[in-house]
């Protein structure tokens, strides 16, 4: 099944519990139309991250249906689903390598030009120019240390280059300065 830009994401009576003791989500219903931006607001522990985790199948629902393009996501391979859904969390994975490798995760199909275009589109060219070797600057052990906000930028660029149909930002801009956050929005 090929997911496409016209596919809605639908939760129908979705419930979820980590164990049988306590239900975290109960009969959740919503529909997100293509091209729409939706924000989930709630207190800590109210289930926002759980909903995001269900969409990318880090967990499977206890009951109900999660549909993408009118097809239950359990019938879509996890590999195909995760190609089309970028889930960016606060916990960023940074490799002991250069900035380019951290953006591409060694995907040979992503070129330097692709990264430069993404940086320009996202208004981040000046950020990368601060480093003497640009995207080839080594970070992590033996290289420079990044701030938490810069790690978040890498994860956002990584997702942008994935060309997803759905982008889930789980408080991902919480460590960015307000000017950078405005630029990215």
Number of helical stretches of at least 4 residues: 7
Query: How are the strands ordered across the major sheet?
Result: 2-1-3-4
The secondary-structure element order is EEHEEHEHHHHEH
Radius of gyration: 18 Å
- Helix and strand composition category: alpha+beta
Total strands: the figure is 6
The 3D shape can be described as elongated
Mean pLDDT: 86
* Beta-strand fraction estimate: 15-25%
Query: Which stretches of 5+ consecutive residues score pLDDT under 50?
Result: none
Major sheet summary line: 4 strands, antiparallel
| Relative helix content | 25-40%
Distance between the termini: 31 Å
Describe this structure in words.
This protein is of the alpha+beta class. 30% of the residues lie in helices and 21% in strands. The strands form two sheets. It has a four-stranded antiparallel beta sheet with strand order 2-1-3-4, covered by helices on one side. A hairpin with a 2-residue loop joins strand 1 and strand 2.
Keywords:
single chain, alpha+beta, 4-stranded antiparallel beta sheet, two-stranded parallel ribbon, 30% helix
């Amino acid at each position: 099944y090929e997911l496409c830009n016209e596919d809605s994401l639908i939760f129908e009576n979705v419930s979820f519990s980590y164990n049988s003791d306590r239900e975290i989500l109960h009969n959740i219903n919503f529909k997100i139309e293509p091209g729409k931006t939706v924000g989930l607001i709630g207190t800590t522990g109210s289930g926002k991250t759980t909903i995001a985790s269900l969409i990318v199948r880090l967990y499977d629902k206890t009951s109900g249906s999660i549909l993408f393009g009118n097809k239950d996501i359990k019938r879509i391979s996890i590999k195909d689903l995760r190609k089309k859904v970028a889930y960016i969390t606060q916990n960023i994975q940074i490799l002991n390598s250069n900035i380019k490798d951290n953006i591409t995760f060694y995907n040979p199909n992503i070129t330097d030009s692709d990264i430069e275009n993404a940086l320009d589109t996202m208004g981040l060219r000046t950020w990368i120019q601060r480093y003497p070797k640009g995207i080839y600057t080594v970070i992590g052990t033996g290289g420079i240390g990044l701030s938490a906000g810069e790690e978040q930028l890498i994860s956002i660029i990584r997702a942008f280059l994935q060309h997803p149909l759905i982008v889930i930002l789980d408080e991902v801009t919480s460590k960015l300065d307000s000017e950078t956050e405005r630029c990215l929005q």
